[in-house]
Amino acid sequence: MELFVIIAFTHFIALLSPGPDFFLILTTLLRHGRSAARFVCVGIALGNACVLMVIYACLFFLGKIDENILLYVRYIGAVYLIYLAALCLYYAKTEVITTHGKTDAVPTLSSTVSYLSQGLRSSVLNPKNILFYSSLVLLVYVDFRVFQHILMVLWMVTVVLLWNILLVKLLSYKVWIEWLSLKSRWLYYISGGCFIFFSLMLLMMNEFD
């Protein structure tokens, strides 16, 4: 029980550090509103679940985390982050949001799938998730029973979903959304810069391996 509490606390602390998922949620909120951002949050949570399932599958069938999988994810993740950076820089040059209400309509089915897939890709192609989750799973893989592993996975996925939805709710308050809308151009530049920074970090990780 003590080990589970430590893991739960460590996981929550890790959520406090902004990463690609946070900036994807922020830019989606600015461009498409709360509903779209919530679907991105669901996609991110599903991505976390997929990462955990891959880790457990590797441990069950191979007995270890395949390094080649992580290497491929790094390269693909770096390309995806550069793509997101390019989108942010494009938005910064072509639009400045001054009204939020018009972009907060309920998404269509195709838009919903698009937002879910964006969150899913952001989470699955983030090597930080694989490194973090694999280290936690390896720590308890032998000591935990099946139901404890299931509980840990449910905890991690649920906390990710609830935390990100809470962020959307907090950022959607009128005082914040008006400020974010007025500063949207600079926020796009900052988000694009962060995506580029994250992608360079991934490439540098490959150099030091």
TrEMBL record:
UniProt entry keywords in alphabetical sequence: Cell membrane, Membrane, Transmembrane, Transmembrane helix
A GO cellular-component term linked to this record: plasma membrane
Transmembrane parts of this sequence: 6-27, 39-63, 69-92, 130-147, 153-174, 186-205
Protein name (record): Threonine/homoserine/homoserine lactone efflux protein
Localization of this protein: Cell membrane
Pfam families: LysE (PF01810)
Topological type in the membrane: Multi-pass membrane protein
